[in-house]
Amino acid sequence: MTVANERTSKVDHTYASALVELVDEGVDGATLDTVATEMKGVAALIDDAPDLVRLLSTRTLSVQQRSGTIERIFKGRVSDLVHRFLQVVNAKNRLGDLSGIIRAFLAEVDERRGIVQVDATVAAPLDPAAAERVGTAIGQAIGKNVVLHPEVVPEMIGGLKLRIGDRLIDGSLATQLRLMRDRMVAAGRARSQAD
Predict the structure, then answer these.
(1) Helices in the chain by DSSP H: which ranges?
(2) Domain ranges of the chain
(3) What would the CATH number be for the domain defined by 10-111?
(4) pLDDT by residue (tens digit) across 158-167?
(5) 85-118, pLDDT tens digit by residue?
(6) Which phi and psi (to 5°) does residue 90 adopt?
(7) CA 33 from centroid of its chain's CA atoms
């Protein structure tokens, strides 16, 4: 789950909301921090072993076989709440949606904490101080705490592109040059038509 703002479905949000509600109700004494940490661990496993997820989400294995595999992998390594949640996701044949469910859950956790994940595309690596300044400026503009995910794309030439949820803010030099060229071409056409 390397991209912060990947899309999630209604199904993902339904399961994520159910997990948040279980934590809110104090089921098994689980805390939001604990469950979020454990779900990040499950996400890391999914990222590291995509074949395992494909195997577990296929109908080739029965629900009981998949349940046994989940038991062997997670029992004792995650809280009872997270373990049972994974078993429910399995029983409903939704293990293929698990990455999206985890993204939606972590997004709800972030929202509760006033945190927003921001993908920043830059032409050159940001040093820690520059990343901090960018994150602080964005946070002040939107009124939330920002977790910045920089990605270096040298073709940008310079500037910055930000993805905040569904919004894209493009301040890249390459885009500004393209827009300037488009305006100059349009102005040239307008002049030639006027002559």
Answers:
(1) 10-24, 32-48, 50-57, 63-74, 80-91, 98-113, 128-142, 173-194
(2) 10-111, 114-194
(3) 1.10.520
(4) 889 999 988 9
(5) 999 999 999 999 999 999 999 999 999 999 999 9
(6) -65, -50
(7) 17
